[in-house]
Amino acid sequence: MIELKGCLSPHVSMAQRDHTRLAWLASDKGVTRLRVITWTCQCRATLYELCQAGGQGFIRRTLQLDGSPEVHETYRWPIRQASDIWRALLSGEAR
After folding, report:
1. Alpha carbon of 9 to those of 48, 53, 58: distances in Å?
2. Span 31-48, mean pLDDT?
3. E-state strands within the chain
């Protein structure tokens, strides 16, 4: 995890050579109630959020483009597993 002055949220470290590749799916617009647990800094073009809905956890990735953002999500996992994958994402072990 990288920390920059003036930023309150963490930054994602560079992906390690042997990192785990996450499957990114189109955002599930049908989920109306979800909770964002934690997120990365918005100063980067790509924002990640650890989310929880229906007793499961997942990671949402938003690519902030000119015009409209592109939003993708991972598969749903048990909350503990989603938290482990979140830590791997921040450390560069997953992308």
Report:
1. 11, 22, 18
2. 90
3. 25-26, 35-39, 46-53, 56-63, 70-73, 77-78
- Which amino acid would we find at residue 95? R
> How far apart are alpha carbons 91 and 45 in whole angstroms?
18
Whether the predicted model's global pTM rises above the 0.85 cut: yes
**Residue 41 carries which side chain, given as an amino acid letter?**
C
| 86, 20 Cβ separation under 8 angstroms | no
Q: Which residues contact 72 (CB under 8 A, 6 or more apart)?
A: 24, 25, 26, 27, 60, 61
Q: Among 91, 25, 94, 33, which Cα is nearest to 60's?
A: 25
Distance, in Å, from the CA atom of 80 to the CA atom of 15, rounded to the nearest integer, reads: 22
Q: Name residue 78's amino acid.
A: P
Tell me, what amino acid is at 27? S
pLDDT higher than 80, residue 79: yes
pLDDT one-digit tens code per residue, 81-90: 999 999 999 9
